[in-house]
Amino acid sequence: MDSSQKKGGFVPVSPSQTPRSTDKHGRDFRSLDGNGNSSSKLDRDKGVNVQVILRCRPLSDDEARLNTPAVITCNEHRREVSAAQNIANKQIDRTFTFDKVFGPTSKQKDLFDQSIAPIVNEVLEGYNCTIFAYGQTGTGKTYTMEGGGRKAKNGEFPSDAGVIPRAVRHIFDILESQCAEYSMKVTFLELYNEEITDLLAPDESKFSDDKSKKPIALMEDGKGGVFVRGLEEEVVYTAGEIYKILDKGSAKRRTAETLLNKQSSRSHSIFSITIHIKECTPEGEEMIKCGKLNLVDLAGSENISRSGARDGRAREAGEINKSLLTLGRVINTLVEHSGHIPYRDSKLTRLLRDSLGGKTKTCIIATISPSILCLEETLSTLDYAHRAKNIKNKPEVNQKMMKSAMIKDLYSEIDRLKQEVFAAREKNGVYIPRDRYLIEEAEKKAMTEKIEKLELDLDTKDKQLVGLQDLYNSQKQLNADLSDKLEKTLASFSLSHTLTGISQIFSWKEIDGSMNLLQKKLVETEHAFLDLEERYRQAKSTVKEKEFFISSLLKSEKALIEHAYELRSELENAAADATEELKVHVERLKAMYGSGIRALDDLAGELDKNSEYTFGRLNSQVLNHSSALEDCFKGMALEADQLLNELQESLSKQEDKLAAFAQQQREGHLRVVESTRSISKITSNFFQTLDIHASKLTKILEESQNIQDQQLYDLEKKFEECAANEEKQILEKVAAMLAGSSARKKNLVQTAVDSLRATAADRTSNLQKEMSTVHDFTCSVKDQWKIYMEETENHFVEDTAAVESGKHGLEEGVRNCKAKVRTGTQQWRDAQNSLLTLGKGNVASVDSIIRGGLDANQLLRSKLSSAVSSTLEDVVTSNKNLLSSIDYNTGKCLEEEYVVDVPSCSTPKRRPINLPSVASIEELRTPAFEELLKSFGDMVKQANGDVKHFSGSYETQLQSSRDSRVPLTAIN
Ligand SMILES: Nc1ncnc2c1ncn2[C@@H]1O[C@H](COP(=O)(O)OP(=O)(O)OP(=O)(O)O)[C@@H](O)[C@H]1O
């Protein structure tokens, strides 16, 4: 048994209801702050900033295995976190400063000792404190809050025990060291898909299934606070008990495996510890000090596509993101001090209301991942947390209560409960205790406020509609600009193609020029593409904005439906007559808003049709333009082809002529070579013949020489013989023979001379013969040479004539080419001119169409605004009527029907109340975005087919298929 129980034995107040220092109900019985705490007064006056701690987890095993780069740097000493962002190939570091920064190597113990322990101490001082973990899924929220283990081993915690077990341990350590008398109660709730479930509720078989966990109601306490009706409170005496409770509760929490975390918490959880500590005043009066510690583990903010959430998971993620978005909006409004704080838009913010801008001390632990893959979400978390730093709370220490007053309080509570039980048992009417009556009164007031808020919402919606209209117009303009740009780019692109084709048939100079032109065009095209890309990006971001806008509209609508639900549940407890009248008025309002918005819808439809028609015309014009351009370019290409062909033909003719000329030349040269060969042959023959004749002559001469030598020898010999004979005869016949010898001598000489003469004559005649042969041959050679010379001359003349004619032919070809080039240039100029005229004509016509479209849109716009203003006027009058009737009825109800119960035994019998059913409220919910798109598409198709039919049958369509309602068709 716990010592506190033994010593004190007092019963603490309900921990499900946050103790409030300004609680009027208990004010009379409470003393002033026993500590005379001046710092609390200071805090109250100035406000204390929410403390924001940043924790970055280490890279997970998977991330480390895949070498995922880390982009987060933590400087714990300077309390700074830097995220390295790569924008347009430039590294840009974004640095954020927080109250404390814990890097990837930080220990659970350090985090607790440095940041959480002081907060826990303040709880024991009597403050209400909240610690909540916020961050992307899988960044270590649950690890930080709950950690890996809670059980102490040899008095030591496991090193990965988180904030909750350490805080519990710390509280018990301090209380035990102070030997304080205390009592402690814990609650553990889960907020899943906007439903609160009690994680400490006893396990009943029918609730054992997750899906059938019993949701419990979040109630307004009528004093601006909330309480969870029927939340189980467990009285605890030891840390061990709390660990068991935590284990039990955590096991019931909804978790699931996502791509980002194997065990991802799909719900928000709030674990609250309420401690009552007994103190004695110097006068001996027993006082009770109360502190409350809320430990919140939020579900992870997540990118649905990246976390791999589908179907049910995606709905969860949507709900998680929705409540976190509301939390973000609350933070923004608190930071910017921009009027109405939308606490009521989600249960999470309703539960945390006192922790955000209230009297609680709050600490946010923002968790991030260092991975580059999570950079976008990390930056969003850093922004979120950094903004939250500026929230100012006004913490107040809870006023201590006198023990006797507390007991009195509890007795009256028991009495109230007894009376309720009694009335329930008797079933003879409704017993309304005074404070309940006051609560209901407050609820009625809250209801009126809600109606006012709904009207405000309606106004905002109207403004949003106008904003959407503007957005639509600007989008239209952007589209027109884009198509214009596209057209220009296409034109320049095809122009550049044609230029490339034509440049092939012009000279290098022209080709150079064309190349430069082409390059310029290419650069321009590139610029145009970049421009287009930029515009595409802008358009994409606009679409994203629109999507966000639509999703926020859907969310607002959801919130409206949520309000309607609440309205219904509150109406159930309120007076019946007022409800009936209210219903009639709401019906009227519904019809009026419906007709007004239908008119708006019609106008929007007309606007759509008009813009569609304009776009159609624009499109057809653009198509005409592009087809005309295409034709023009085709013609140009054809002409260029013809020119090219002609040029090619003339060039090939020139080529043929040149080939023929070359052939002629070759033949001429061959002939010359042939003639030269024959001349050289004749000349060599001539010299050979000459050689032969010369050798023959030499032979003849040698022979004649020999013969002459022989004859002379013979003559000499005969003469010697004759002389010797004559010497003898002379001696003998001196005188007689003198005469005979002279005669014989004469005869002998005469004969020799005659033979000599004959031989000489023979030789001369032979020589003459040879000489005549040589002469004949020379003559024949001369004749042949003459013939050859004549032939060569003739060939030369022929060749010269052929060269002359080839030259003429070439000159003619070049002249033709020049003429064709001139024709080509002229054709190109003509094409350019026709292109320019075509472009101007098209620009003018597109301009006139756009002007027409704009004028028509302007007209429709003015119609729309007049319709909107008339509808708004109607709404204002009707609302005035409604409010006055509500006022009247409320007054009537409060004055005449609601009275403090005086047992008169005439309590009227319970009778049924005609309320809007859940189904009717559910019908008001906008169907899924895809369905809306589909039905909108169908309607547009139908409208294109038969515009009249569309407007006439719109009402019927609306009635026949509720699901195909377009957004903003408010019914209630
Ligand atoms: N500081 C840390 N040191 C070591 N491991 C960590 C740290 N922070 C987180 N982890 C590990 O990262 C994983 C995911 O952590 P955890 O489940 O706490 O994330 P979560 O933010 O609660 O995610 P969810 O929002 O999906 O519930 C766990 O395996 C956890 O052990």
TrEMBL record:
InterPro entries: KIF11-like, KIF11-like_kin_motor_dom, Kinesin_motor_CS, Kinesin_motor_dom, Kinesin_motor_dom_sf, P-loop_NTPase. Its main location: cytoplasm. One of its GO terms (biological process) is spindle elongation. It comes from the Eukaryota. Pfam families: Kinesin (PF00225). GO terms for cellular component: mitotic spindle; spindle microtubule. It is found in: Cytoplasm, Cytoskeleton, Spindle. ATP binds at residues 135-142. Residues 21-31 have a biased composition (Basic and acidic residues). Residues 49-391 form the Kinesin motor domain. One of its GO terms (molecular function) is microtubule binding. Keywords: ATP-binding, Coiled coil, Cytoplasm, Cytoskeleton, Microtubule, Motor protein, Nucleotide-binding. Residues 407-471, 561-588, 637-664 form a coiled coil. Residues 1-44 are annotated as: Disordered. The keyword Signal does not apply. Responsible for microtubule translocation. May be important for the organization of phragmoplast-specific arrays of microtubules. Plays an essential role in stabilizing the mitotic spindle. Required during mitotic cytokinesis. Belongs to the TRAFAC class myosin-kinesin ATPase superfamily. Kinesin family. KIN-5/BimC subfamily. This is Kinesin-like protein. It comes from Musa balbisiana. The lineage of its organism: Eukaryota, Viridiplantae, Streptophyta, Embryophyta, Tracheophyta.
